[in-house]
Write a structure and sequence with these properties.
With 258 residues, this protein is α/β, with parallel strands linked by helices. The protein has two domains: 18-114 and 211-256, Periplasmic binding protein-like II (D-Maltodextrin-Binding Protein, domain 2), CATH 3.40.190.10; 116-210, D-Maltodextrin-Binding Protein, domain 2 (3-Layer(aba) Sandwich), CATH 3.40.190.10. Helices cover 37% and strands 26% of the residues. The chain is built from ten helices and 13 strands. Strands 1, 4, 5, 6, 7, 8, 9, 10, 11, 12 and 13 form an eleven-stranded mixed beta sheet that branches. It has a two-stranded antiparallel sheet with strand order 2-3. α6 (149-157) links the parallel β8 (141-145) and β9. The chain is elongated. 43% of the residues are buried. Residues 1-15 have low confidence and may be disordered.
Length: 258
């Protein structure tokens, strides 16, 4: 019995242990953990007035506390700008979709949020398309934000249709609305909100990919990346990630990644 209790205490101590000095210096080189939050995607972050919130803010603050530093929240409205800043020592961690095209500039922790069949396309009123196969035809165009996961996935997987890059979500939606594109690609959660503003528009019946979101650390910080990876696994096991999902009111939209 005593041996069992001792083992539990040792494991708890390991889970609660902070980073090494090297990892802490790499993780928060300015003395605070700069958490980049993509507020144009409500699965990742939200913004009401000047208040930034959502799962990344909740988890970023928990991560900072575990490392013994303050969290500094940085608001990003566009994914392309966020990724451009990855190599400029502007932020220390961010949450983005795991994609092989990003592994040259960031190191990913294990995914902490996931959703099957989550990426799909919104089509305009009057569209006959019901499935991705209907859209993936010669001459068809699908709008998506430059540098975002939907665009990168579609560029690799479309056989006949082409992707129309846009600078932000509003521009991508407008491309479809104004007839420049035959659809607008994003996650189901965001597309349902867009569809509510355009009567007659609808989501396709199927999808083109699932979603895996993870903390990203800029390249060149191996000790920090290792610490974040361990912290994420502990956060998933302890219920911290699930509580962040519940606090953001995203139950049923995404789940804790396995």
């Amino acid at each position: 019995m005593r041996a069992s209790i001792a083992a539990v205490l040792v494991l708890a101590g390991c889970a609660a242990a902070g980073p090494s000095q090297e990892a802490k210096t790499q993780l928060a080189p300015t003395g605070a953990l700069r958490v980049a939050v993509l507020t144009s995607n409500p699965i990742i972050g939200t913004k009401a007035g000047n208040e930034v919130g959502g799962t990344t803010v909740t988890l970023g603050r928990e991560l900072a506390a575990s490392a013994g530093v303050a969290a500094q929240i940085l608001d990003y409205a566009a994914i392309n700008r966020l990724m451009e800043d990855a190599g400029k020592n502007v932020w220390d961690v961010a949450v983005v979709a795991i994609d092989p095209a990003r592994t040259s500039i960031v190191d990913f922790a294990p995914a902490h949020l996931s959703a099957d069949g989550f990426l799909t396309v919104l089509v305009p009123p009057g569209s006959a398309a019901r499935t991705m196969a209907d859209l993936d035809q010669p001459g068809k165009k699908i709008a998506a934000v430059r540098g975002a996961a939907p665009l990168m996935v579609l560029q690799r997987t479309l056989k006949s249709a082409t992707v129309l890059p846009a600078e932000n979500e509003n521009a991508a939606f407008a491309s479809m609305q104004e007839g420049q594109a035959d659809g607008y690609a994003q996650n189901r959660f965001m597309l349902r909100a867009r569809a509510a503003t355009l009567p007659g528009s609808r989501l396709l019946d199927d999808s083109f990919a699932g979603l895996q979101l993870a903390f990203a650390v800029p390249k060149g910080r191996p000790a920090a990346a290792g610490y974040v990876a361990k912290w994420v696994e502990d956060a998933k096991a302890s219920g911290t990630v699930q509580r962040a999902i519940e606090r953001a009111k995203l139950v049923g939209e995404v789940s804790v990644a396995k």
